[in-house]
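Entry type: protein chain
Record version: 2
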Amino acid sequence: MAIGKDTALRLTLVDDQVNEAEAIVSSLRNAGIAVRPLRPESLDELATMLAQQPVDLVLAEHASRQLPFNEVAMVVGGSGRDVPLLAVLDGVTDEILDDVQALGAHGVALRGRPQQLLRAVRNAWTDLDARRSQRQLESQMRETERRCDSLIDSSREPIAYIHEGMHIRANQAYLEMFGYEAFEDVEGMSLLDLVAPADVADFKLLLKRLSKGEAPPPRYELTARDIEGRDFPAVMEFTAAQYEGEPCQQVIFRRQAAGHDPELARQLEDLKQRDAATGLLNRPTFVASLDAAVAEAAAQGANHALLLIEADHASQLLDVIGLDAADQLMAAMGERLQASAPQAIAARFGERQLALLQRDSDHVATTQLAERIRDAFAAHVLAVGSHSLNATVSIGGVQIGEKIASTSQVLAKASQGIVAAVGVGGNRAELYDPGAVDRAELERIAAWVARIEQAIQQDDFRLDFQPVIALQGDGSEMYEMFLRLHGSDGVPVEADTYLPIAEEHGLLGKIDRWAMSRAVALAGSRLRAGKRTRLMLSVSQEAILDPEVPGFVQGLLSETGVAGDALVLGVQESKVFTNLRAVQDFVSAMASMGVRIVLERFGAGLNSLQLLAHIEPALLKIDPQFMEDLSKSAQSQQQVREIARQAGERRIHTIADRVQDAASMTLLFSAGVDYVQGDFLAPAGPDMNYDFS
């Protein structure tokens, strides 16, 4: 699926109330969906949006007076584009449901049930993405079929497609072999008509088995008959195929030479499929078997196993036995492999690599098989010419199932397993099981929860600080404080990695309290050192909703003797619309202590400036998306100027985050922005040593 964590949902909202539309956007963003919202104010504007901009989903208020839902549905349906339409309802009845479905809506989203609304949006978006992917695949398939058809036409191999025993396609070489001039001469003809009478009975049995879905034989020898009634020995090769969407059999029909010896032909065919040095199947033959196993897993949910096996320290072994004995080494390994797994399909897959395909093997059986093979090599002495070697092996394995029904993916994962096994010293098996990924994810989350709890209890967070610089140069010191954790490898991990896990497990409130305690303590220590420093940090929605947080902050300030204005708490704009009353209370409580509030990512909503009529923050941090192209985008420059102007009229200071270049600095200064920060000016680091003078 193309939808990833960084993929933005291009959402069009039809709603009479801006704040209601903004609440939907906020709830989607809170759920981790990046949203690019649009809100048309007329049907003509909606039609223009659908025609000129990529739109993934339309959420339309069913009870809208400005843009009636039935007219919105007509515009969306008449746009000629695959855009899902969801009806936003306060409640649903059978009559309303029938009405919206009759108008072409893909579903309903209940405003009062955020989880249902979220599921409806995700489902509609996922279905849309699947349809787009399917159309792309179908286009690629048609192009592939066109090329294959062209290749079949030009091939000198006699090829036909057979459905229920009848010809539905045949190339020129096939027609020439039987003496026909055009495909119309054999179209709909039974394949039995091209078989000599002596072989008809056996061939009928073969066709019956094929019609029941049984696998065809790789080769089938018979006596064929051409249009003139002349008999000749022939061999047929069957491959399951599709032609114009119909399941069928591709048949390659080859004429055998006079005096043909069937037993000799079988022996020659077997030799063609085997590696001369080891006697194992060669790579092309093995890949054909692997393709069949993968296709069976995709169609029928079967479980199979692929193992790739390499000798550890092969170069050192060859230094001992000589390069001329490389094939002998592979032959000895092949014998040991077949003895360890006699029921599996073994092959020489590369110059120094063996492969094993075990059909009908679940994860447990595959793990046991891999360990049995590893043990068999570790405990066995290989006889290679005059040398006796104890060679261990590294194994990369894949559990083939519906979740990885692609030959290229299977081989890639097995190769990665080999590399991983070799990388940690060899003599081990690394297995990839798509079904185990879910289990591994649960274990990863549990490990992160334990890591976060440990960091809270043992003060194990790493703090970084980035200066927030006044463009007017007032000399005041302000830093934004960031919390990071160290991973198991000692490398710092960004907050975006662990905060979603902390939120899911109810740990954000504890992190907020830890961070506020540390910020106040640091401000106090710097004050005692003669430096008046303000520290800005983001707090979660839990802090806003927790009625005990103001008392907690008051206690911190009293204990340390730090003034409230040393602490600046950041609240994301997206959290405000859905918690407006709680935010108003939070801002008021903090203001009574002198603690300042900054609205973060300001300007990302549908009508951000409307918020300022309801709350009075001390600062606004402008959404970083405006900084990405500020020096080139007149629209971004205009929006930044408008934010700075309206904030200035309310005596609210503005901060531009992630400033990228000197040209942006000039534009921000002229726009009236008060503070700037970003790696261009000073990157975040563990020390607060920026010279604000």
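Comment: The radius of gyration is 35 Å.
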